[in-house]
Amino acid sequence: MKLRLLVLVGLLSNYTSTFAQQGNYKFNNFGNTSILLSGNVTGSVTDIGLTYYNPSRLTEVENTGFAFNAKAYQLSSIKVSNLFVEDSNINTTNFDGVPSMAGGTFSLFGTRFGYSFISKNKTDNNLSYNSDTLKDQILEIFPDAEAYRVSTDVRTKIKDDWFGLTWAKKINENFSLGTSLFGSRYTYSGGSNINHTIQSDDNNVAFYQNTISFSQKSYGLFIKIGANYNFDKIDVGLNVNLPYIELKNDGSFKYNKVVAGAGDDFDAFYDYNYKELVAQRREPLGISIGSGIPIGKGKLHLNVDYVSGLKIYDRVIIPSLDIGNDDLTPVLFKEERQNVVNFGAGVEIFISDRFKSYASFTTDYNAFISNANIFDLSTDDSREINIGEDFIHYSIGVDLKLNFASVIFGTTYTNSSATFVNPVDLNPDGINNNQSNLAKIDYNRWQFVIGLEIPVLDKINPIKKED
After folding, report:
1. Full DSSP string of 133-195
2. Dihedral angle at the C-alpha atoms of 24, 27, 31, 36, nearest 10 degrees?
3. How far apart are CA 459 and CA 325, in angstroms?
4. What pairs with residue 464 in β-bridges?
5. Cα–Cα nearest to 90, from 74, 76, 77
6. What is the DSSP letter of 316?
7. What's the pLDDT tens digit per position in 237-290?
8. How confident is the model over 175-208, as pLDDT tens digits?
9. Model pTM?
């Protein structure tokens, strides 16, 4: 009997959050009240999040001393339907922490400064799947199969740490300018491994293993330029995020494939290990406009964000592979982004001098046209499997002022549903690309938020706010 071997199946789970943090620009927010306002604070930010959202607002706030960004934990659940086999379902639920921020503000020589550390992106996902069930679809392809075992794992890890210094100055009584300079240390890696073992009724055994991994490192700078103008009753802010300035990069790629016990026409062994590959990270230009409109003792926060697209480029330039085909097999690891416009609003409700409540929403549209991910590398035909969703985020919470600190509590909620082309299709004639059968992914996330702001420097050396 001649056995045909299964190819790698692209499996999805909490990788939604992984790629959302790169292709969705509003997926995480930073700063205490800024989180509860869903980041709609370009013209009205009043916490340490100003270093990220609009550095010119530094001139509008009292010294914070030192502030811990609201610490958030998230409960996320994902369901993937019709992946690989019709009517199949994969479910996963995760509870973990999310990126955070810390920093403070101070005055020196009559000028306002801020400092901040942002864990901009921190994900470490690993999905494993095992099965020994002989489904009808498998038996149609392997009629002599008596035992079958498949095991696979897919992993992605991203870490992006920002270290920043912010400066701001009043140009006149109503107009301020500011800038933030962040150094970024970024790593992106992933891998997949799959093993198929099939035993026929005459005890012949065939084995297939496919292992792929990549890594990318980048060191560079982000620059933000902000402006703020105080009208009689409205504050208006503008923030420009300049494109990422890369200073150093590095990439690597590994590929290993073993086929054994399937006969001379199928048995194979390939092993490639590339280091010091040319890699590049690109982040586009972004412009945000926002306003804070007083409503009694409360405030309405409005925001519009535009982020430009990126022309297609190679995240890591990987040589084509000789894996026994007539021609060399290209390895696609490309990225392309479209222009995105997001909008949102938040309301700040004054209850007392010590107590405020917040509610907000923001859109968060996916920018990826194509995104470099482990699933691209894992398809035998180097076909692109694009991952990305559109979200709407909702937030509610309260801000409690104590004698020694300000404490916030809140929650955010996100959900979405999307379909994507199934990576492969099983049928009696073999395994083919499927351009019609769609897999579906449903995503839900709850974040539980608590934050603390301690005005240490104010108590040691009080500084009066400028008139």
Report:
1. ---HHHHHH-TTEEEEEEEEEEEEEEEEEEEEEEEEEESSSSEEEEEEEEEEEEEEEEEEEEE
2. 130
3. 72
4. none
5. 77
6. B
7. 999 999 999 999 999 999 999 988 877 777 889 999 999 999 999 999 999 999
8. 999 999 999 999 999 888 888 888 887 888 888 8
9. 0.82
